[in-house]
Amino acid sequence: MDPSLLRDRLLFAIPKKGRLHEKCISLLQGADIIFHRHNRLDIALVQNLPIALIFLPAADIAKFVGEGNVDLGITGQDMVAEAEVSDKVVELLELGFGKCKLQVQVPEKGTFSRVEELSGKRIVTSFKWLVEKYFQALDAKVLNPEEIAKGKGTRIHYVTGSVETSCALGLADGIVDLVESGETMKAAGLHAISTILETQAVLIRNKNPSNPDLVTKITSRIRGVIAAQKYVLLNYNIERTQLKNATKITPGRQAPTISALEDPDWAEVQAMVEKSQVAEIMDRIEDIGAKDILVFTISNCRV
């Protein structure tokens, strides 16, 4: 692609594949960021905004944003920490997907039950910097300085994939890897004995974006998409004598909308409620006499 086509465009890095890619594409569509990605090209020009999407490995995005090569990016909080750029990027939004835990795992039928017992042992991981930092702190508590000086501290071995097989192959006493449901680790005969950090996908920017106003606009759009996925609009009628109790149950994000009805003894209430709680909330307002209870899907919003 001609580099001149990127001039005057905000550069927005997106994971090119893996666990975050499809969610990111859905998020962009919800934010009305229209683009067409040609086969084998890792750059796509947005048609309705001065943005160029750059498709990169998720592990590289934090560094590119931190060093100022791109303005915006979506990656995992674990990737930001591993790239050592937490002080070079601004976390704009937690996106609510890609939730995982970076955990220390050991064989279920093994001899280790506490993470302190792994001090001085062999650890295999794909997160070299984070894990080295974690076990250096652990070694400082468990081992004496003389043992550390003699090289008896925990040995960290870096691999790029299939970390969970390392214990079975005799390469490690324990591993550190991202765990989502835990099924993969369970199938490998492993279980967690410590959590180093909890992580999810985040929208980040560098500290000096080329177009701050556009960054604000995109952030607002994405925030709206996330809210639309999380909330529904609840609409119901309630007797005015129960209005105070009803609005305590459905306070909305700022405040509920209350409208008069033709019958002066009744009012209509509209409020955003969390999708995960809507059934319980409907039960509660029905218990105090709410009628004509309706739930509407929110396709997009600004909050």
UniProtKB/TrEMBL annotation:
A GO BP term here is: L-histidine biosynthetic process
Keyword check for ATP-binding, yes or no: yes
What's any one GO cellular component for it?
cytoplasm
Alphabetically ordered keywords of this record: Amino-acid biosynthesis, ATP-binding, Cytoplasm, Glycosyltransferase, Histidine biosynthesis, Nucleotide-binding, Transferase
| InterPro entries assigned | ATP-PRT_HisG_long, ATP_PRibTrfase_cat, ATP_PRibTrfase_CS, ATP_PRibTrfase_HisG, HisG_C, N-reg_PII-like_a/b, N-reg_PII/ATP_PRibTrfase_C
Instruction: State the Pfam families in the record.
Output: HisG, HisG_C
Task: Tell me the compartments it is located in.
Answer: Cytoplasm
Q: In which pathway does it act?
A: Amino-acid biosynthesis; L-histidine biosynthesis; L-histidine from 5-phospho-alpha-D-ribose 1-diphosphate: step 1/9
Catalytic reaction list: 1-(5-phospho-beta-D-ribosyl)-ATP + diphosphate = 5-phospho-alpha-D-ribose 1-diphosphate + ATP
Q: Which residues form the Histidine biosynthesis HisG C-terminal domain?
A: 228-300
**UniProt superkingdom:** Eukaryota
Q: What is its EC number?
A: 2.4.2.17
Q: What is the first-listed, main subcellular location in coarse terms?
A: cytoplasm
The Gene Ontology terms for molecular function here are: ATP binding; ATP phosphoribosyltransferase activity; magnesium ion binding
Under the heading CDD domains, the entry gives:
PBP2_HisGL2
All copies of domain ATP phosphoribosyltransferase catalytic, residue ranges: 58-224
Which family does this protein fall into? Belongs to the ATP phosphoribosyltransferase family.
Q: Would you tell me the protein name for this molecule?
A: ATP phosphoribosyltransferase
Report the source organism: Ambispora gerdemannii
| Source taxonomy | Eukaryota, Fungi, Fungi incertae sedis, Mucoromycota, Glomeromycotina
